[in-house]
């Protein structure tokens, strides 16, 4: 069966006595055992609520199917789903190579927390080829962190190439796979060891849940992840898990609609005189388009526009004039959002002396939700006078 059919026909609820269609919310700390002999039997799971009960199990099963994994683990946020695998597989003396276009809060984690445990993080330029990134590796390098398209800048990495070269050197790869919601790209099929997703975004889909996942194929990696999650006491609630599992049922439709509308709006913006450049990997004008088109089935609803303007002041005036686009961080919900990018672009690790191409003009990131694309175009159009 096709993935959409599997995600929608999975008989989650029918296992419970009332035969509701969907999974239920099973809450609990104490788990009752059937006999005293089972109390200290290590093969029995769950032994306690922190292991997760039926709702978490159902979500994990669907996620493993979506990611092509043997096991998917869930964590209380997307960020935790990045920090936990990094922590699980690195120890004092090790080094991780992190792409400079990573989701920004990861930098805070590696710089303030990892460092305290004697683990070094080095940034590499997202535009480097896999061979050039591997040339930076030393015997201490134990993990390479990739994200494509990169957060904010949409730089494209050759992920299959990176996974193959890293594997040959015995270096683990961790991929932030949030962009495609697990639908548009399958990192594990391309040799990545650890595929992470902020389910907060497209999977949750309604901007009302915080949850993350890490998916793996290798049982040894799964065992090590489970051990770390358990040792740290991370637990993801049944309510959040329920909402994520429910989101999976309509994930494909929402990602497609959001991506189609975004491409339409991006193409329209490319024709506008107020625009310097539209940064969208689905457009032929994007420098990473060929690799993106090779690896991804389509683009999502996010893109950045560099308008003819003199920076943040004009960006803010433009944002304040938008009516349909909400001003706020995050994305993946049903509602469209916009933010100005300059403060985040300025915060990126500087790896060379070139002027940052994303600081030319006034930069806005759009997330396109499920409103009608023509209404969103009209909303942008009525605010464009601020850039002319
Ligand atoms: C939002 C996001 C995260 C973090 O997810 P949270 O659930 O908000 O912690 C990680 N990576 C990417 C690419 C994201 O967009």
Automatic annotation (TrEMBL):
> Which cofactors must be present for this protein to function?
pyridoxal 5'-phosphate
Question: Which keywords has UniProt assigned to this entry?
Answer: Lyase, Pyridoxal phosphate
Q: Which GO terms describe its molecular function?
A: cysteine-S-conjugate beta-lyase activity; pyridoxal phosphate binding
Modification sites for N6-(pyridoxal phosphate)lysine: 201
* EC category: lyase
Keyword check for Lyase = yes
Which GO biological process entries does UniProt record here?
L-cysteine catabolic process to pyruvate; transsulfuration
InterPro entries referenced in this protein's UniProt entry, alphabetically: Cys/Met-Metab_PyrdxlP-dep_enz, Cys_b_lyase_bac, Cys_met_metab_PP, PyrdxlP-dep_Trfase, PyrdxlP-dep_Trfase_major, PyrdxlP-dep_Trfase_small
User: What reaction gets catalysed by this protein?
Assistant: an S-substituted L-cysteine + H2O = a thiol + pyruvate + NH4(+); L,L-cystathionine + H2O = L-homocysteine + pyruvate + NH4(+)
As recorded in UniProt, its EC number(s) are: 4.4.1.8
Query: One short Pfam family name for this protein?
Result: Cys_Met_Meta_PP
Q: In which pathway does it act?
A: Amino-acid biosynthesis; L-methionine biosynthesis via de novo pathway; L-homocysteine from L-cystathionine: step 1/1
The signal peptide, as residue positions, is none
Concerning its family, UniProt says:
Belongs to the trans-sulfuration enzymes family.
Q: What is this protein called?
A: Cystathionine beta-lyase
Q: Which organism is it from?
A: Asticcacaulis biprosthecium C19
What gene, per UniProt, encodes this protein? metC
């Amino acid at each position: 069966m096709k993935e959409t059919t599997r995600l929608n026909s999975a008989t989650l609820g029918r296992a419970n006595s009332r035969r509701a269609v969907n999974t239920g919310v099973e809450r609990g700390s104490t788990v009752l055992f059937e006999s005293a002999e089972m109390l200290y039997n290590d093969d029995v799971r769950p032994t306690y609520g922190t292991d997760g009960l039926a709702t978490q199990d159902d979500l994990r099963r669907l996620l493993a199917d979506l990611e092509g994994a043997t096991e998917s683990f869930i964590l209380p946020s997307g960020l935790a789903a990045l920090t936990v695998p990094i922590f699980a597989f690195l120890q004092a003396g090790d080094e991780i190579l992190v792409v400079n276009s990573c989701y920004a809060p990861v930098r805070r984690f590696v710089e303030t927390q990892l460092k305290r445990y004697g683990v070094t993080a080095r940034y590499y330029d997202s535009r480097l080829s896999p061979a050039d990134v591997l040339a930076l590796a030393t015997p201490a390098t134990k993990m390479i962190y990739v994200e494509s398209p990169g957060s904010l800048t949409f730089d494209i990495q050759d992920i299959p190439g990176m996974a193959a070269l890293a594997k040959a050197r015995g270096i683990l790869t961790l991929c932030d796979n949030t962009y495609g919601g697990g639908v548009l790209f399958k990192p594990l099929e391309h040799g990545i060891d650890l595929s992470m997703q902020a389910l907060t975004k497209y999977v949750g889909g309604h901007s009302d849940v915080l949850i993350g996942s890490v998916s793996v194929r290798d049982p040894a990696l799964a065992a090590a992840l489970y051990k770390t999650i358990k040792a740290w006491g991370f637990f993801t609630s049944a309510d959040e898990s329920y909402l994520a599992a429910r989101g999976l049922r309509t994930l494909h439709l929402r990602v497609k609609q959001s991506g189609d509308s975004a491409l339409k709006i991006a193409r329209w913006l490319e024709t506008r005189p107020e625009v310097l450049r539209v940064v969208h990997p689905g457009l032929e004008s994007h420098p990473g388009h060929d690799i993106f088109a090779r690896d991804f089935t389509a683009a999502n609803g996010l893109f950045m526009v560099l308008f003819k303007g003199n920076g943040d002041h004009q960006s803010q005036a433009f944002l304040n004039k938008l009516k349909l686009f909400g001003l706020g961080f995050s994305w993946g919900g049903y509602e469209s959002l916009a933010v100005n990018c300059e403060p985040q672009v300025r915060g990126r690790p500087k790896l060379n002396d070139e002027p940052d191409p994303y600081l030319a003009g006034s930069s806005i990131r759009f997330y396109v939700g499920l409103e009608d694309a023509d209404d969103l175009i009209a909303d942008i159009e009525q605010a464009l006078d601020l850039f002319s």
